[in-house]
């Protein structure tokens, strides 16, 4: 119960979208390394390189997870592709800069970029404050919808994060 | 020549390339290629670069970071590299040390900026043992509160690079090319460059001693094998999508014009 209450307040803090008005189930994961909880949302799919995808109609929205932004630190710069460019499953489509480092962002699915979040140019910190909401990065028209099936569900991704942190 | 020791059994391999006076732009191109198209672990040590250069991080804006008029007047090349981090002036007094590793190369190391930075800090603690009050201060290498090494990284899906420019020596006049950056470490306390930095040559006996101690510290983690640059790759064979590049004179001149900057922002 306490965990559900915590998760709800985290959802509010992270400015998470609600799915048709219904509460979004959150799977909190605790990173021993960063000593913080990170959130994983129901209704999203996840890659092992810590990007998320939300497929709605003919468009899929992509960003990086709360786990990823927590490990990266304050994001100060984002490099994103142009609309119309192609992305491939597992391939890099851009980069974020944080704490002296650039980190590649990899697309969980293949397709064509139809929209880019231009707000991130002036406000890259949205990736930290709202990784599943205002910190979205690109919207893609998927070329192979079956690729979504191969991605991790929220429970599997939460477990993946905990195992990854436990091994280090 | 490095001869693998019996104690190296079980350690991952790392190729060691030693250079002297190599062009920093060519070094960056080489590093990006090794990071993105090779699968081995690498250490590059470049003992000084051939000409003074200014090197900015990937998001660096010349109008915010450098005294453009002076740089243009003195015709100092300005490079934007592919890693994050700040702006440095490099020359023959700079010693460059780069690690390029697979994510699995170091047991227990998470491939994120802070763990990688922390791991290098421990590696260099051994290098500088008995030479001074060495610390990893925020993201810099420092003796006490004086920085002598600046770091930058790039992390891909399966590999990472961490490279450092060490101030063996520097020309105080060259620091005039650099503005005080907007983003500085807390420990800098708004000090100017000459009050904030120190020279490694004032702490260690020789450049070769420094380099040999790096190699010795690395051998705790890797089985090193010497690689010859020419035999390994052609430095003229630039990767298709390299990011590090020289800024043109036109780009620098445009950056000095407030109207041009405003129109870009609009």
Automatic annotation (TrEMBL), chain A:
Record carries keyword Mitochondrion:
yes
Q: Which terms are listed as keywords in the entry?
A: Lipoyl, Mitochondrion, Transit peptide
A single GO cellular-component term from the record reads: mitochondrion
Q: Which residues carry this modification: N6-lipoyllysine?
A: 100
Domain Lipoyl-binding positions: 59-141
Q: Does the keyword Acyltransferase apply?
A: no
Origin: domain of life:
Eukaryota
A biological process term (GO) from this entry: glycine decarboxylation via glycine cleavage system
Query: Could you tell me what the cofactor note in this record states?
Result: Binds 1 lipoyl cofactor covalently.
* Gene3D superfamilies (UniProt xref): 2.40.50.100
The cofactor(s) it depends on are:
(R)-lipoate
- Alphabetized SUPFAM superfamilies for the sequence: Single hybrid motif
**UniProt cross-references to InterPro entries, sorted A to Z:** 2-oxoA_DH_lipoyl-BS (IPR003016), Biotin_lipoyl (IPR000089), GCV_H (IPR002930), GCV_H/Fam206 (IPR033753), GCV_H_sub (IPR017453), Single_hybrid_motif (IPR011053)
Its subcellular locations are:
Mitochondrion
Which PROSITE patterns does the record cross-reference, listed alphabetically? BIOTINYL_LIPOYL (PS50968), LIPOYL (PS00189)
- Parts forming coiled coils: none
The text of the family note is: Belongs to the GcvH family.
What is the role of the protein in this entry?
A: The H protein shuttles the methylamine group of glycine from the P protein to the T protein.
Could you describe the subunit structure of this protein? Answer: The glycine cleavage system is composed of four proteins: P, T, L and H.
Recorded protein name is: Glycine cleavage system H protein
Record the organism.
Answer: Platanthera zijinensis
From TrEMBL, chain B:
Question: Per its UniProt record, what Pfam families does this chain match?
Answer: LplA-B_cat
The cross-references to InterPro entries, in alphabetical order and at most eight, read: aa-tRNA-synth_II/BPL/LPL, BPL_LPL_catalytic, Lipoate-ligase_2_inactive
Q: Which residues form the BPL/LPL catalytic domain?
A: 39-226
Against PANTHER family, the record matches this protein to:
BIOTIN/LIPOATE A/B PROTEIN LIGASE FAMILY, BPL_LPL CATALYTIC DOMAIN-CONTAINING PROTEIN
- The protein depicted here goes by the name BPL/LPL catalytic domain-containing protein
- Please spell out the taxonomic lineage of the organism that makes this protein: Eukaryota, Viridiplantae, Streptophyta, Embryophyta, Tracheophyta
